[in-house]
Amino acid sequence: MDTSKPAIFVNGALLPMHVRKRVRTVIQVMGSDRGAVVGKSPDDLQLVVKGSPPSAPLTNFVEVIGIADSEKSIQAETWTNFGDAFDTYSYNQLCQLANGEYQHLFL
Amino acid sequence: MPVNLTPNAIATINGGDVNLKPLVQVLDIKQMGSAQERFRILVSDSVLTQHAMLGTQLNDRVKTGLVKKGSVIQLIDYICSEVQKRKIIVVLNLETIIPDCEIIGNPKMFPDATAHKTLPNTNSVQPAGVVGYNNLSSQSHGNNMSSIQPALSSQNHGGNVQSFRPTLSTLNQGSNMQSFRPALSAQTHGNDVQSFRPTVQPPYQPPPSYRNHGAVMKNEAPARIIPINALNPYQGRWAIKARVTAKGDLRRYNNARGDGKVFSFDLLDSDGGEIRVTCFNAVVDRFYDVIEVGRVYLISKGSLKPAQKNFNHLKNEWEIFLEATSTVDLCPEEDGSIPQQQFSFKPISEIETAENNSIFDIIGVVISVNPSVPILRKNGMETQRRILNLKDGSGRTVELTLWGDFCNKEGQKLQEMVDSGSFPVLAVKAGKVSDFNGKSLGTISSTQLFINPDIPEARDVKDWFDRGGHDVASVSISRDCVSGGPKNEIRKTVSQIKHAGLGRSDKPDWATVRASISFIKTDTFCYTACPLMIGDRQCNKKVTRSGNSRWQCDRCNQEFDECDYRYLLQVQIQDHTGLTWVTAFQESGEEILGCPAKELYLLKYELRDDTRFADIIRSRLFCQYLFRLKIKEEMYGDEQRVKITVIKADKVNYSSESRYMLDLISKVRRY
C-alpha cells in the first residue's frame, strides 16, 4: 500500500473542505462535458472529474484519486473501474467516518 | 364526632331506598373470591352495620387506599339485593368523604335475620327475635350497652352467621338482660327505624332443613334498570337496557352430554358497559330470531357466569346466560344515548409492543389489499386468507389478515374500493395481535369490520390522510421490519464461541459467524446414504456394500443398486479471533463447495481426476462466508466435546456486510 501520497475519502459535501488536497471518491458516471467526466457523488451531488480517463471504457461506478481543484471538481490522476453495482450508501458512510471522529484512523 | 353519618342509612337502604346517598363508615374490608377480585366492606351508619359488595370497578379505590377501614364514604349508586337469602348492599359508585376516621358510634349488625343457621331454642326465639330487633335498633344511641358490644362485634366478623345471634343468645342468658330492656327501649329515637320495618323481612326463619318452606316474598314489580357494569352474580333481580352490537351465528355442538345448540350476542349500554349474552338449546329458539344487531332491548333475569376470556374479549368479567325465565323485550323507540358501537381505538404503533394474542381496536386507512388466497389449515380444512395494509397517524402501518368470510365480504369490498383509487377507512373491532413476521393483526370470530364508519375517529383519520398522511412515510411493524435475516441472529466471533462456553446448556446455542475457510478435510468428505423414502423424508442412513455391487440399508432392510452421496464435511473456519472445526452436512456442504457430493465423489473416486478435485477444494479456501452455526456439547465416548454444525453457509454479501459493520461502528461506546 502506497502511503506516500495519502488521499482523503470524500463525498460531494466534504470536497470543499479539501480543495488543493489529494482526495479520493467514487462517482457514478453520468456523462462527459468538454473533456471532463460528469458524475454523481455518493451523496448525490454533481462532480466534475478532469484529467485523462483510461483507454478502457468507464463502468457505471469509477473511483478517482487526484487533487480537488475546486469545490466541485477533481483533477484526477488515477481512475479505477468499480463495476456497475456499488453500494454508495456505505461508501458515503465511510467518507463521513474518515472525516469525523475516526479521522485519526485514516491516512 | 367530626362527622355525622346519615342516621338510619342501613335500615333505609335495606328497605329498598336507592336515592338517599347516605354517609356511612367503612368498618371492615375483605377481599372475596379467587377468580375475580372483589371487595366486601362492612358499612356502618353509626348504629347499624351491613355488608356491602363493591362493584369491581371500585376495586381500585380499595387498592389505592381511598377506601379503607375507618373511611367515611358517601354511597352514590347502590342497591340492596338478596343473595342466598341474605341482604347485601351492592355499591356501584361511591365517594370518599373522610379517608381516615375513628369508628363512629357503636354500630351493630343489621338484623337480616334471614340468614340464621342455628337457633338455640326455636320456641322462644320468635318473640325474642322481635324484641331483639327493637333491642338492636334501640342500642343505637345509648352507651350503656357498651359492655356487651365487643362480643357482638367480634361475632360480626366471625362468618356468615349474622350478628343477630349474639343478641339472641344474650337474651337467653336470663333475667339480668331483661332488666336492661326497658331502659333501652326508652332510648329509641323516634319511629324512623320502625317505619321501615315492613320491607325488612321478619327476623326469624326456620332452621336450614326447613328453609325451602319459608315464606318468600316475591317482588313482582319490574326490576330496576341497572348499568351493565353493575351486573354481578350476587344480584337476583336486574334488568338492563342495551343495544345489540354483534350477533353470533347459531352453532351446533356435540359433546359428552349430547347435542346442543348455542348462540351469543354482545350488548352495549348507555354507560359504555358491554357484556356477552349466551343462550343454549330451547332458549336459543326463543331468542335467536328476536335479536337483531343495532336494536335496543330490555333484558331481565338470567344468570351471570365468569366470562370465557378465550372467546369473549369484551371488557366485562361476566357473561349472561339466559334462562327459560329470562325476558328479552325489544324497545321500540330508538335510544340515542346508547352508541351503535363502542371502540377503544389504539394507535397502530401500540401493537408493536403489544403481547401476542392481545385484542385491539384499530382504525386506519386501507392503503393496499392483497388478493384472497386459499390456505390449508392445520385440521385439513381449507379457508381463505386476505392480507391488507392499514396506516394511521402514528407513523406505522400494520398488516391486517382477514380469515374466512371476511375475505369475501369486507375484503372483496375493500379491494374494489382500493382498486378504484379510493382509500377507505377501516375500523377493526377486536382484532388479534400476532407476532408472526413482526407484528400483525388478524381477524377472529368476534372481530367486526366497519368500512368508512360514521364516527369521529374515522373522520379524524381520513382528515389526517387527506392532509398529507397519504404521503407520510410510515414504518411497517409487520414482516418488512424484520430486515437483515432472522430475528434471533446473534453475531459471534470464533473466540466468543469458545470463551462464552456456548453449547453447554440443555438446548443448543445458535450463532452467526463471519469467517473464512482455512482447511477442508478431503480424505472423507461424504458418505453413502440410503435414497429410500420414509414417509415424506429420505432415509439418509449410511448404507454399506452388500457383497456384490448392491447397497444395503440396515434401517430400511432393503438392497438397491444406486446409493446417494451426502456431504459429511469437516471444515476449519477462521476469523480475526481464532480458528475452529465445524461440520457441514448435505445442504450446507453443497453451499460451501458449490457442487453436489456425488459429483465430487465421482470426480475423486471414479474419474480419479485429482487435479480438478483439488482445484474445487482450493477455490473455496479463504472465501468468506456467513456461517449459521448450531453449537452443542455432546458425549463422544467418555469425552465431552462441543460440536459445531453448519446449518447454513452464505457467501458474504459485501454491501450488506458493510452496512452491518457501519451500524456496529455507530453503536461503539465512546469515551
UniProtKB/TrEMBL annotation, chain A:
Keyword match Nucleotide-binding:
no
One Gene Ontology term of the biological-process aspect is: DNA replication
State the SUPFAM superfamilies in the record. Answer: Nucleic acid-binding proteins
The places in or outside the cell where this protein is found are: Nucleus
Signal peptide start and end residues: none
Q: Which GO terms describe its cellular component?
A: nuclear lumen
Record InterPro entries: NA-bd_OB-fold (IPR012340), Rfa2 (IPR013970)
Tell me yes or no: is Nucleus among this UniProt entry's keywords: yes
**Keywords noted in UniProt:** Nucleus
**Xref: Pfam families:** Rep_fac-A_3
Determine the domain of life of the protein's source. Answer: Eukaryota
Q: Which PANTHER family match?
A: REPLICATION PROTEIN A 14 KDA SUBUNIT A-RELATED
Name recorded for this polypeptide: Replication factor A protein 3
TrEMBL record, chain B:
> What GO molecular-function term can you cite, just one?
damaged DNA binding
Where composition is biased (Polar residues), the residues are 185-197
Q: What Gene Ontology biological process does one annotation of this record name?
A: telomere maintenance via telomerase
InterPro entries in the record, alphabetically?
Euk_RPA1_DBD_C, NA-bd_OB-fold, NA-bd_OB_tRNA, Rep_factor-A_C, Rep_factor-A_N, REPA_OB_2, Rfa1
Domain called Replication factor A C-terminal: residue spans: 510-661
Where are the stretches annotated Disordered?
A: 185-208
CDD domains the record matches: RPA1_DBD_A (cd04474), RPA1_DBD_B (cd04475), RPA1_DBD_C (cd04476), RPA1N (cd04477)
The Replication protein A OB domain covers: 348-452
Looking at the record, the residues that make up the Replication factor-A protein 1 N-terminal domain are 5-97
User: What keywords sit in the KW lines?
Assistant: DNA damage, DNA recombination, DNA repair, DNA replication, DNA-binding, Metal-binding, Nucleus, Zinc, Zinc-finger
Q: What range(s) does the OB domain occupy? A: 240-319
The record's principal subcellular location, in a coarse class, is nucleus
Localisation: Nucleus
Q: Name one Pfam family in it.
A: Rep-A_N
Q: Which GO terms describe its cellular component?
A: DNA replication factor A complex
Highest taxon of the lineage: Eukaryota
How does it associate, per the subunit comment? Heterotrimer of RPA1, RPA2 and RPA3 (canonical replication protein A complex).
The job of this chain, per UniProt, is described as: Component of the replication protein A complex (RPA) required for DNA recombination, repair and replication. The activity of RPA is mediated by single-stranded DNA binding and protein interactions. Probably involved in repair of double-strand DNA breaks (DSBs) induced by genotoxic stresses.
Q: Record's family?
A: Belongs to the replication factor A protein 1 family.
Q: What is this protein called?
A: Replication protein A subunit
Recorded source organism is Dovyalis caffra
Upper classification of the source organism reads: Eukaryota, Viridiplantae, Streptophyta, Embryophyta, Tracheophyta
